[in-house]
Design a protein that fits this description.
Blueprint lengths: L11 E2 L9 E3 L6 E3 L7 E3 L6 E3 L12 E2 L2 E9 L3 E8 L4 E8 L7 H15 L9 E7 L2 E7 L6 H6 L6 H4 L1
Antiparallel strand pairs: 1-2, 2-3, 4-5, 6-7, 7-8, 8-9, 9-11, 10-11
Length: 171
């Protein structure tokens, strides 16, 4: 399992003569090493084999990753504020939609506030045509909203196929 740690959670040392590759100190064993993040934004300590996700560029969570009790199954979609994943709420063994704020926005206090306000406001609404917010929070520097998962084709997918969507279906 990957630890979701951001740059602030362990030390980035100055670049040394390995070119542009950054040097890290493992947050678990303090071993200093250089590494290039893999396609998931992860690095692995060669001494203790601990894995970390590195923030900076936007990252996507991979299937099997666990974020505060939610196990990622797959990416559903991406929007301006974040990625939405199909996930399993481990404690309840149910499928949920997990919206995770883009890691590139986590240092923007206004974006974080807007994201968390969205979650709190969604949690106040109970309507059969609006998904319910289940939980919200922050884990290891990543902000998330857990929502009811509604399976089926997206409106965007229907529109891209040129399918007409009636007012009743849209509502």
């Amino acid at each position: 399992m990957l630890n979701l740690l951001l740059f602030d959670d362990y030390t980035i040392l100055k670049n040394i003569s390995e070119g542009n590759m950054p040097k890290y100190a493992c947050g678990k064993c303090q071993f200093e090493f250089t590494s290039e993040p893999d396609k998931n934004g992860a690095i692995q300590c060669p001494h203790c084999n601990e894995q970390f996700i590195v923030a900076g560029e936007d990252i996507e969570l991979s299937a099997g990753s666990v974020l505060n009790g939610f196990e990622i199954q797959r990416l559903i979609g991406t929007g301006g504020m974040g990625h939405v994943y199909l996930a399993t709420q481990i404690s309840m063994q149910r499928s949920i939609a997990l919206k995770v704020l883009h890691s590139s926005l986590t240092q923007d206090a206004g974006a974080v506030r807007q994201f968390m306000d969205e979650a709190r406001n969604a949690g106040k609404i109970q309507h059969p045509h609006i998904v319910s917010a289940i939980d919200t929070g922050e884990a290891n520097g990543l902000y998330y909203i857990a929502m009811q998962y509604v399976p089926g084709e997206t409106l965007e997918s229907k529109m891209n196929r040129g399918k007409f969507v009636s007012v009743e279906d849209a509502m």
